[in-house]
Every structure is written in structure tokens, then in C-alpha cells.
Amino acid sequence: MSAGFGLERIGLVALRFPRATLLLIVLITLPLAYFSTKVGFSSDIREIFRSGTVDYAKFQLVEEQYPDSGQDVLLLIRSDNLFTVKNLERLRDLHLELSFANGVRDVVSMFSARHPPDNAGGAEPLFPPEITEKDLPEAKEAILHHPLVAKKLLSPDGQTTLFVIAMQPYPDIDDLRVVASELRDVTERMLEGTDMTVQYSGLSFLRLEIVSSLMADQMTFISVGFLIVLLISWLFFHSITYVCVAALPSVIAVIWLGGITGLRGTEVDVMSGVVPALVIVLVVASSLHLLFKVRRELAEAPRSTRPWTGPCARSGPPVCWPR
Description:
Layout: H1 13-16, H2 18-36, E1 40-41, H3 45-49, H4 54-65, E2 73-78, H5 85-99, E3 104-108, H6 136-144, E4 160-167, H7 173-191, E5 197-201, H8 203-237, H9 240-264, E6 267-268, H10 275-300, H11 309-320
Parallel strand pairs: 1-6
Antiparallel strand pairs: 2-4, 2-5, 3-4
Helix pairs in contact: 2-9, 5-7, 7-8, 8-9, 8-10, 9-10, 10-11
């Protein structure tokens, strides 16, 4: 009994029933190709940054105390002249527009700050309804010394301000991508024509960056892998036919891998993202080995009508599962 319990010889069935085997491969590949388009990518921040460091311990503590903070989107807006009438009006309009964006529960910024409540319990906004040049010095002084704004939502130099956007939970990354795109559009539209710059942060945007990186890495690994396969096959054989025969099994293997992954609902993470490249290497190595045997068979018996039979019977099982 071999290490593969005899399963390594299952490929010999294709020699006896080639058409039925080809039909079976097609019937399996087509649905798996569909399911390969449903492959999800893991965006779990905890798994990526998990460690025994003090910073990660603080992250866990904050997450336990404020479980909804993981849905927040942070906008860091900077300008050398943040406290101008034009910039403040744009920022206040941005605060209002973001509040009406899809998926937004609440927006907190320096425009959320209010004066201490009066005797009647009313608390007036720190910024007046109409901001004028005359109001700027007083408003700037008040906001820079406000205990809930200073060094939290506004930098001490008054050049950088923070918008905290509380989002609805979006477990589906595609829905989150749509909402994030709308937030970007609203922000860029409201800040257009000003000297203010914006940076996006928060775990929601990190999720998008992680998934985008995983998808880009996956495409890079697969594309570069296939290009290397084609190049090596051409250098060895100098024949389009042999190149196609060497590359086709790796294409099918990657489709099957992606299809089974999507069918099982398994998400691709940083570690499993390199598996398609490894599959390509293994399959191509086996393909090249068999093709060399086939060429040798043809060289020894040019008129052979079944040049695949001998190489597959003798070299196929050891290649698939070495003893």
C-alpha cells in the first residue's frame, strides 16, 4: 500500500476513459469557477495585529470598554489657516452633510461643542450661527480651551481638527465599501476649493485597506505565477502546444482551489493568500515532469500513437504522490 492509499493512481483512469474524464473536469470546473468569484477576504483587525505588546493590550481594553468604537470613521483635517470664515463655514457644512450620509449614526467634531448650560438649562453652540471676522478671535480662544475639544478634537496649534463619524455596523465588506465611497465623495466635495487636506482613518477604513491589499496580492501572485509558468514552459519546449498543456492544469487547479474556498465560505487571510501561488508551483512541476517524459517517448518512438500512456503509467503516480 502506498502513502496515498492508491489514490495517486486515479489519474490513470483518464487514459482509459479520456472523453468521460474531460467531461467530468468541465462539469466540475464550471460551477467551481462561479464559486471562486464568491471568495471572501478576511478583514479582522484583531488577527492581523494580534501580539503580546502593550499597544495591543490597550487596543483590547478600549474595544472592551467601547465596543462600538470599531465602527467609527475618523477624518483628520488640516490647514495652516483653519480658523478663517471660509474654512469654518465649510467644516460646519461638512459636519451637517456627513450627518445625513447613508450609514452614519452620528458625527462629533468641534462644532458639537457648546457653552456650559445657563440657569434655564440651555446650552448654546460654541460657534455662532453666522461666523464673522469679528467673532473669530473669541470663538478660537473658546474652542482652544474647551475641555472636551482641546487636544481631543482640535490640536493645540489650531491647525488640525478631528471628525469622529459613528457608523452603522457593516459586516459585509461590499456594503462598507459603498458607504466609505460616499463619505469620501461628500468630504472631497465640501472641501473642494480650500487649502484644507483630509486623511481617513478608523478601523472601518483599515478593513477596506486590508481587503484591497489582500485582493491585490492575490491577483499579483496568480498573475506573476502564470507568467513565470508560461516563460519557463516556453524556454523548455519552444512549443505553444506544450506551453498550453503545461499551464492548463495549473489554471484548473487554481479555479478548483478558489471554488472550494468560496463554496465552504472560508475567507482568505494574509497567510492563505499565498496558497494559489504554491498550488501553481506544485502543479507546474508535475506537468513539466510528465511533459519531459512524453517528449522522450516521442523521441524514442516518433510514430507512437499513444505517447501519453507510458509516461503517465510509469511517472504519473510517483509525481502525484512520491513514495
